[in-house]
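Newbie here. two chains, one complex. Structure please?
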Amino acid sequence: MHTRTGAAIVLDTLESLGVDTVFGYPGGAIMPLYDALYDHRIVHVLVRHEAAAVFAASGFARSTGRPGVCIATSGPGATNLITGIVDAMLDNVPLVALTGQVRSTVMGTDAFQEVDVAAITHQVTKRNVVVRSVDQIEPALRAAFRLATSSRPGPVLVDLPTDVLRAFEEARAGAAAEPAATRERPRADAQSLDAAVAALQRAQRPVLIVGGGTRWSGATEIFRSLAARIGAPIASTLHGLGCADPGDPAYIGMLGMHGWKRANLAVQSADVLVALGMRFDDRVTGDPAKFAPNAHTIVHADIDAAEFDKVVHAHVKLHGDLRETLVALDHRLARVTLPSFEEWRAQACAPHEQLPRDDARDGHLSATDFLDALFAALPEDAIVSTDVGQHQMWAAQRVRASHPQHFLTSGGLGSMGFGLPAAIGAQMAHPGRTVVAIVGDGGFQMSMAELATLRRHELPVKIVLLDNRNLGMVRQWQELFYNARYSATALPDNPEFTTIARAYGIEARLVDHAEASAPSIKRMLQSPGPMLLHCACYPHENVWPIIPSGKSVDDLMETIPA
Amino acid sequence: MRTVTANDGRMLARIIHLAHRFGCTYTKVAAQHTGADYRMEFAFAGPGDALRRLDAQITKLLDDDRETMG
């Protein structure tokens, strides 16, 4: 009779669940699991900080749709995961975090590296569990994966005391895996679907808003088909980018605080709004009381009933898996005739709209010009991750992602330090694809130790560092809303980033004038290995347009007020 | 008054934290371990909109709770 340790059961169960890659950092309480990893088929990516493990797992999940797995030890290892866990919760990323725990007999005694991570993460996970015995490991992991991916996806944490990992269990040779206990999925009811169709039949100025729920339900294809059938202008949330075909003439771009003016104006003029898999985030709505004031009907489709009427009242609620909802809606729409929205679409799409930008750059490189050149050069299937800040919004405004899994960004939590590790996760999942991390000088310095991870695993991630020697987004807000009192946002003492990259054995190049952009991008994309482009940018370039926080599109700014 | 049944007894704490987050107070909290699960009774007070959102969140949490975790 074979016997396995709890640690071996963890890895065997992960493997049986389709896991081939995990991201982590070892430590005392989790050592039995690392001992089992030593000669296991699952690939372990050693990061340099646990925060990078969870962001890398998130990048893996966001770029594949499959759960990402991260591992940390007890105490500080576990607490270092928390930002990434919250990030996954807010962005609906399926994630399973495995944490070591002190041995069962000393739990509750303030033992070395003991922390009650289950209590700490209780509010920010879909669920967590402390595994109390070896026979609970497999069912706990199977439930964790089910829960992470079911309904609205999110993070689940499994806490593994070290004695449980070391304990032996009699293997159940040939035992069949337990069937997955699936919950009944909600389905949009016929009456609501009919009401949605009727609203579109009555509409004169409808707008579709596509959100992140579309990507997680695998509804991109049916969404595009449905959108073509309706023929209304399409706006996107940050997480919906890539769901609409960026070449679709009905696509009017990202909505919200830094969205395209035409997208915001279209929503304000719309008489019927169809919001798909989105949650009316405050960065989208601004002042909810002034959001879409002309919409007599708002149709809201979501898997999570708690989203209905949370921020914006919906007249028609389609509660269900979005892909199934859209299929049902498409069937109904195929049997009716909708009005032509051609004239409205032509008006809303404003094809010649350009993003406003700062012209006075004192001869410096413009970050937005650089991004325009970068996106023009990237292959269509390139995966782009961003960090958080100005560069993130510039990228979101400009990216022409052909699929939602091609653009990875921390939207809900806005976690600086996300960009590089997320790119690592994506590159592990897609070894043959071009993966680019667009980062700022603030966020990059929160995770640049992961250059070592690139080197260790020979990952050809391309890093575009837009260095304006400032915490740019905060600086911009200080300029616009805090009387230009630049408190703690200047970074004049940034290091020489190319030297740092080279110290890790990574090719690096400085780009400090516009003419160097195109050849540097070309060189980077041709490089077989990782490469950093350090772009020394104009420090005062702002993100335009901007709708000030809590305001409406009436307050949209396209330049600094005179 | 809302009566709920949960596999995870910690749901009590999670619901109370949520109520605080939404600016609600609780006027009654009671819990009993019934053997297989926990039966909890809550009564909340607060703004109507917050109470409605709290109720929706509790329903969601209980849906997730139905997944047994070993």
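Moderator note: The first helix of chain B runs from residue 11 to 21. DSSP finds two helices and three strands in chain B. Thread marked as resolved.
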